[in-house]
Amino acid sequence: MTYALGSGERVGLQLDDGVHDAGFDGTMVDLIGAGPERLADVERHARSSLALPEARLRAPLRPRSLRDFLTFERHLHNVFSRLGREISQEWYRVPGYYKGMPDTVIGPEQEIPWPSYSEFLDHELELAAVIGRPGRDIPAERAHEHVFGWTIWNDLSARDVQAVELPLNMGPGKAKDWDGSNVLGPCIVTADEFDGTDARMAVRINTETWGEANSSEMHHSFADLIAYASQDQMLHPGEVFGSGTAPGGSGIELDRRLQPDDVIEMEIEGIGVLRNRVGQRHGR
Question: How many domains does the chain have?
Fold first, then answer.
């Protein structure tokens, strides 16, 4: 993870007794790009150092890029059935995605800003893969070799703005982009310790469970996503790929809305809990 202690941020490791410094003078993206031998060095350093009880977790990385896909058929059915729409046949053929803005990312326990131009803020529970090894034209059967690890992504949406933008057929814009509109965390679990193909996922609002799912429900696998995105394009360490919203992972599926001061807890078994409080509405 990345942690703050005092005025700066540093890379750390979560061990049984808490956060330990990694002994690395760079960012998480720098560490990922340094390769597995450097990762082994920082683990040895962390295990020989003392825990830091005052460490405050931040977003585990500032991604080089954000690609968000749409892979869960049940999520689409839940949303489209309310809108009187059907899932297009193209969705079954192509793992389409949009690109988010890395500078909008915040981390666990940080307040989610409510955008001044929206009245309908919604959460989205996603599993995210972090690219660890560069590659281009990656075959699906070797995609796992390029995954450094896994984290939780709360991909927030201004739904009222989204309803205006989507008919333009240009993808989301201000419906997705404001400072703090993407939350990652609480950590990155390395690929050797987590199975992204069979992960239980849940979202709770003020301790009430609003949705549960499993990553095994994905129609397009992460291997498919990596293979598709890497066609004629080099992928780099520190890029993040999102699964898209898990079934039941958003309020729009349930016709329920977030309110100021709501506490969102997103849990993926094997990664942990990403917890944030929703901020206050601000006038236009």
Answer: 2
